[in-house]
Write a structure and sequence with these properties.
Shape: rod-shaped
Order of helices and strands: HEEEEH
Number of helices: 2
Bound molecules: zinc ion
Distance between the termini: 111 Å
Length: 82
């Protein structure tokens, strides 16, 4: 019987075509899900200043500035004179 063999090859061909289309992406394009994670943990680059008394570096936001415009790491170094 040649009909059964023909049906068999039709089924095999259909499966092969479906597999090729799935691999090749011939179907509708899949959109990637929007709303991913945002880079909120990016390191902030802050200006570093140097204590005029002890020479230690610290962020400008944490540094203390004396009347003479020099940076200090702590009130003790800020008010120290001499
Ligand atoms: Zn200091």
């Amino acid at each position: 019987m040649a009909v059964s063999r023909l049906i068999f090859w039709l089924l095999v061909g259909g499966l092969a075509i479906s597999a090729l289309r799935r691999l090749g992406g011939d179907g509708s394009p899949r959109h990637s899900a929007s709303g991913g994670g945002s880079p909120a943990d990016a390191p902030r680059i802050e200006n570093m200043v140097r204590c005029a008394q002890c020479g230690g570096y610290l962020p400008e936001s944490e540094a203390l500035r004396g009347q003479d415009g020099r940076w200090a790491c702590c009130p003790e170094h800020q008010g120290h004179s001499g």
